[in-house]
Amino acid sequence: MDDIDKEILNRIQTSFPVAARPYQELGQQVGITEQEAYDRVMNLYNTKIIRRMGASFDSRKLGFTSTLCAMKIPEEKLTETVRIINKHVGVTHNYKRNHDYNVWFTVISPSREKLLSILQGIEEESGISPIREMPAKQFFKIKVDFQFKKGEDEKEEKKVEVANDS
Amino acid sequence: MTPDFDTTDKKIMKILQGDIPQTMHPYKDISEQLGISEDEVVHRINGYIEKQYIRRFGATLRHQKAGFSANGMAVWKIPEDDRQRVGEIIAGFREVSHCYERPTFPDWPYNIFAMLHGKSEDECRETALRIADEIDVKDFYILFSVQEFKKTSMVYFE
Fold first, then answer.
1. ipTM metric
2. Where are the beta strands (DSSP E) in chain B?
3. Of 1.20.1070, 1.10.3860, 1.10.3470, 1.10.10, which CATH number belongs to A3-55?
4. What pLDDT, on a 0 to 100 scale, did the predictor assign at position A160?
5. Domain ranges of chain B
6. Do A137 and B102 touch (CB under 8 A)?
7. Which residue does chain A place closest to B38, by CA atoms?
8. Hey, what CATH class is A65-133 in?
């Protein structure tokens, strides 16, 4: 990655142009041609630095509800229980972590009722309970971009959102 | 309270929740796929961004590949009347991507969660120690991800 790649990533993480010729616009922003902008973005894709290019929706604005869940799952039941958890489309992140609560996953659902029925289904099918459900009560900060500085790999966070949900 | 999207909105959003076409003219390709004009696609997407249905439109990086290989969920036990002060201080750290208050349980006393990012677990620990100093609350725990079982984007539109 050279400085132009970093500049491109800094820009398109925040906003990829929505216009008839997005790569022409991106090229103008960083001082290269439309073709070079396109080639560089495709290269960042192909080298898997870019995971995805699309929209990150605000689940709450779309009327969805989300939560974080923790479970204590015995090692011998881990594989099977993770399979039961992960088959739900609304489960978007699931990690094993170093704690008695060793499995942590997020669930997004169109309604609170459906979300609770997913959790109940997981408890019933896995035979493991309780699932500790920890929906956010207050948001102090959500999502930042990983900004690159020219000539180094340090990240610099760009925006701080402080929002009170209540 | 789901917003009122028409069929075209839903079709566009279904595409946007995945990847836009990796072509020189992605919006033109989307428009041809849906049988509408490119102008309309561009206009509608800009509308979703303005109305903030879309929080961010663009590239999502693989943090490992981009040099941010470690993440830790740092958790603090903060008294009720001190949460706002602490939350705002933690939010100011550039190593923190998310900071939320969450409910506690008898066997889970931690109510403030901060997602830390760094080049290594040690770097995350070092960040947590600096935060602990700054907020003057020394009792914290960091849960590192030992294994990733799933990481995807939500499918809102099917």
1. 0.86
2. 54-61, 70-76, 96-101, 112-118, 140-151
3. 1.10.10
4. 33
5. 7-50, 70-144
6. yes
7. A20
8. alpha beta
